Every structure is written in structure tokens, then in C-alpha cells.
Structures
1.
Amino acid sequence: MKFFVDTADIAEIKGLLPTGLVDGVTTNPSLIMKSGRDFREVVAEICDLVDGPVSAEVTALEADKMISEGKSLAGIAENVCVKLPLTMDGITACNALSGEGIKTNVTLCFAANQALLAAKAGATFISPFIGRLDDINIDGMELIREIRMIYDNYDFRTEILAASIRSANHVKDSALFGADVATVPPGVLKGLASHPLTDKGLKAFLDDWAKTGQKII
Ligand code: E4P
């Protein structure tokens, strides 16, 4: 399973790079607003830092304008992945951009039928929003399961990018249900290593080690 980091915060991305866990980055207009940075500038900077796909979202609503914006964003760097909303215009733009070999991430997916359209339009990634479904008491993980089954039934190549992840359990369940990628907020990604028994065990080992009076180097 690949991990993307769901942020436009350069310091957070830089901090995570040495872990080797960052396979890509996703941004959205809200994350760009939160960064306080110029959109094109911050996307270019992230693309320089990370080898994998960096999602940058269009803001137009009509297909022809989305296509123009998408081509412009794709011109920033080779690893830009154009993020398009799951509307009929977004699907039309996805079909056009994918046809030109531009990477696409169809976002704001809340139903399996929507994911089917994105795959047929040649999307590189489909982003089902788990957390926002859970927020309204609909099981987000069930959506991942349905999309996995549909994509496998027809051998669609579109990768399932579990998005709107809020917890370590979301990451674990996405992996269990066969999502190809999880885009994870930095705090949740760091939390994946935490376990109280790891902390307790480590303390006991180090206490005993101190009693030996030895040093490794
Ligand atoms: C990523 O591509 C999405 O934009 C993001 O995961 C949305 O997360 P949120 O529902 O926490 O805003």
C-alpha cells in the first residue's frame, strides 16, 4: 500500500521524507488556504521534494475550463496529478486529460457508481472520502469494499486512493479492504507507529541495559 501525505505544509512534508513513507502528496483548495502560500508556488515546491504524484485541484466548474486549468497545472512539474471533482464536467475533463497522458485524481467520491464513471474516464486515482461519510453515519469503509469489487470485476487500472482519513483505524481498514493508496494527514501518519506496549517494552529493555553498564559504540 502506498502512503500519500494529505497536506500543503512544506515543513510537515520535509519532516516525513526521511521515514521513506511518503509516496506522494495530495492537496486541495482548503489545504492551500491553510498553508497561506501561493498555489502554483507551493505545488512546484512539493513536486521538487517528492518523486511521486502530487495532486493539485482545479477550481473551474465547466469541463473546458477544467481542462485548461488541468493542462496549466500539469505544466508545473512532471509529477503533478490533476485533481478533478466527481461531476459530469469533471468526468469529461478526466477523459480528455487522461487521454493526453496527464495523471488525474477524481475527488469527492461518495458512491460506487461515481467511482465506476471515474474508472471509465481513465482516472489514475479515485478518491473515496471515508471520513466525511462516517461523519454522516454512512460506513465509509463499505464504499472502499464496493469500489474494490467493481474495479476487480472489470480489471480497471484506476487506483483506489482512500481519502478523508481521520484515524489509524481508517488506514488499517483501507489496507484490509484493498485500497491501493491512503492519503493520510501528517499527524495520523506519525501516530501509526505508536503503541503503549511498544513504549512500555522499550523502557523495560533500556532500564535493564543501563544495569549492564555496557555501550554499543
Ligand atoms: C484528499 O485528497 C482530500 O482532499 C482530503 O483527504 C479530504 O479530507 P477531509 O475530509 O479531512 O477534509
Note: The first helix runs from residue 10 to 16.
2.
Amino acid sequence: MTRPSRRQVLIAGLGLGASATLAACSGDAAAPARPTTFPPPEPLTASAGQSVTTARLTARPVTLDLGGRTVPTWAYADSVPGPTLRASAGDLLRVTLDNQLPADTTVHWHGVRLRPEADGVPGLTQDPVRTGENFLYEFIAPDPGTYFFHPHVGTQLDRGLYAPLIIDDPAEPGDYDLEWILVLDDWIDGTGTTPDEVLEQLVADGASGTGMQHGSMSGMDHGSMSAGQGGAPWGADTGDVAHPHHLINGKLPTAPEVLEARAGQRVRLRIISAASDSIFAVALGGHRMRVIHTDGWPVSPVDADGIYIGMGERYDAVVTLGSGVFPLVARPVGKSTGGQGLAVVRTATGALPAADVTPSELDGKILVGSQLEPDDSARLPAKSPDISAALTLGGSMAPYVWTINGAPYGQNEPLRVAHGQRLRLNARNRTMMPHPLHLHGHTFALPNGLRKDTLLMAPMESVALDLDADNPGDWMIHCHNIYHAEAGMMIDLRYT
Ligand code: C2O
Ligand code: CU
């Protein structure tokens, strides 16, 4: 296979010079001053009748069996994914993080409209949690849905530090027999390198200008259109890292998780992407799936052969099981290495599918999430925006710098909003790569009303995103490609 020549990244109008540096990542003095210490959050007491969910989360190094391959990594409670945390909407969650990692860490409750003190962004909402320290996260999870949690420090998300967070809807009938949580991931940690080394290599390759042509051991991936779905509709260049493995629920496709069920049962899939650099096309062989929620919000149900899912996105879908043994495949889009993720549903006897099985559904209609229509209950009230702000995504491989509004994080101007305003973000992707754009502490509405907290934006796509500023604090907006985020593709949203 031929490698495309150096990525043609458009940095129209950004004025980003070759001298741009990673001030935000290196703690360079050019970064604006921030508070250096935060008081511990005010304790929350449960109100009358409010349920409390308590958990303790130990983060520490572990040797993990991916199913025939053993890797050293970092995990919650010694497992990948970590244990599912579950509560009902409106409950008070009290989770103690016990940091036994050889590094600072935090926990971010991805997608939850929680109080800012519990959002887990070091330097913005809390101090980093040092090795040997505990931190108590107390928050109310107001909205039902499928969420997950992960650190908000460096590239730690690309280790094994992630787990599902499910907020049940006490009012939902639950029109299904079984539930299956599927956490998708791209894996490189402990395979001879670490995510931190991968990022260093991307930056070094960018600085020397050699990475793209020669591909380095840390794995620049310049996938062609030949892998599965090809890159469409996400472009030919969907990621920067050649993860050697793709996992579902922590397992390699040679040792997949198997859901034992009965034909005729209705299964609710809760699909979560904890990947760092990979978009997946997901399909269940022999079945169509009825997509019912994205990022926790109900949609007008749609039947599809499969879905695309970007890093940080979630989709819930219902399937009625046939009789047999069926592969659930997560195929990385536009990447040529690392195989695919696989899990299996079994309702009858039969052999397990091969690790590289291609369900014919992958050649069918794969849903692009932004084309979903919201359920009416998910719509923002009609209102025209009080203010608007540009949110322009840019960047380059050499130097390896990714930007929002013309500069990497720490050098860009925070966005500002006042409590109660409707803010319109005019998001524009001015690069030839897709980027999953994620907003903390709020959700936004697309022009058709679809509510999300993570939107996979195609190359050169523009979209207006409306949000209600109803949760005062300091929040982040960033690309959920963890390598892009660490190389600057983040910005603050601050309440004035
Ligand atoms: Cu899951 Cu700031 O991210
Ligand atoms: Cu990105």
C-alpha cells in the first residue's frame, strides 16, 4: 500500500507559524496565569428521599490479559473497562478516587451536566490528585443516559483508565429484555510503547518533518480508503496513531466477550467509544439495529445496518436477536492496521466467528449520528441566540500542533458567556481530518435540534451549535482525539 504524501492540512486564516509551540502542554510561561490551588469542593448532602450511590475507585498499574496478550497498563479496580457505575437520574453520587498511579490524575464524568467542582479538569476545576492521595467526587447526575468516565490528565485516557457510567431513567419503561454495554477502544499501551511516548514521537516527528513520509515505530497511521468502510464520510485521514489492537470490553477479537442470550430477546446495546484516535463503524451481523439515543438523549428511532461512532460518543440501540452466533464488529474507519474490535452474541450452538469477520451489514447503511432527529423531549426551547462565538478547528502534523480559534490551548482566548444566555457556537473544521468536538457540563443542539455533548465533525464541515448557559463555572471544549487535545485542540468556556 502506498502512503499518501504529507497531509494536506488547511490552516486557512489561522496565521499559525512554524514557531508555534506547545505552551499549554509544557507549562510554558506564556500560558496565562491560573489559580494554582483549589479548595476542596463543598460537601453535598442528600436531600430528603434522594438516593446516594457510593463507590471507591482505585487507579493503579496492572498487568492485563487482553485475551492471549498480556500488557502492563493503568486501570481502575484492576480491570479494563473499569467497573460500571450505575445510578438513577437525580441521585447523588459520591465517588472516592484513590490515586495509586505513579502520576497525577483526576476523573472526568464525560457528558454529565454536573457541578463544576466535580468535573475533573486539573488547573480549571480542581488540583491534580497526586500519587497516594484521595479525592472525593460528589455530584448529582440530573439526566439519564449512557456516559463514561476517564482521567483528564495527559494521554491517560489511552491507557486502560475508563469505565461506563449509566444513569437510569426511573420513568423509562425499558422495553427490552437484556442490556449489553459495549466499550470500544483502540489499544497501544504496554505494547512496547506508552501513550506518552506516542505523543512525544508525534511531536518529535512534527518538529523534524520526517514522520509522515517514513512512518515511525510509534506508528503514524495514514490509512487508505481500503480499510473496511474506507474513510468515507470522514475523509482519507482519520487518525494519527497506528494502534496495534482494537478492543471491545477489554478483549482482543481472538478472545471476544460472548453475550449468551435467547433468540427473540430484545437487547439494548449501550455503545461507548473510549478510543483515543479511532472512529469505528459498528454493526451486528445478521441484524439491523434501532438507534434510540445518542449521548444520553432520546432520538426519533431509526433502523440502521450500523453506526459510526467517534471518540467520546455514545449510542444506544435495540436489536431483536435471531437464532445463531453473531459477530458484533467495531471496524476502525480509514485505518489500515490493528484489526478490529469484536464481541459475540450467541443464541444457538455454533462456532465463534473469526477475528477478522466482516458482517455484510458493514457494507449497508451506516448511520452518521448527526443525521439523527431528536425526540421532541430532547429539544431546546425555541429561542434565538443571545450571543455567538466562533469555534474554528485548525492544526498541522508538522509542527504537531492542533488549535482552536487560531492558537493552541493556553494561547487562545477563552470563550465567554453569561448565565442564562443562549450561546451559538459557529463550529468550523478547517482541517482535512475529522474531530469529535466535546463540551463539558452542558449539551448543545444541532440545527435540527439533535442534542449531543460530542459531535464528530467531518473534514471542512461547519455547523452551528446552540447551548443554554445554565451551569455556571469554567468548562472545557475540546477535540476528543486525545493526541489532538494534548497538542492544543482545547479551549475554555467561562461564565462572566
Ligand atoms: Cu471525555 Cu474533556 O473529556
Ligand atoms: Cu481532533
Note: The pocket of copper (II) ion (ligand 2) is lined by residues 402, 435, 479, 481, 484, 489 (CB under 6 Å).
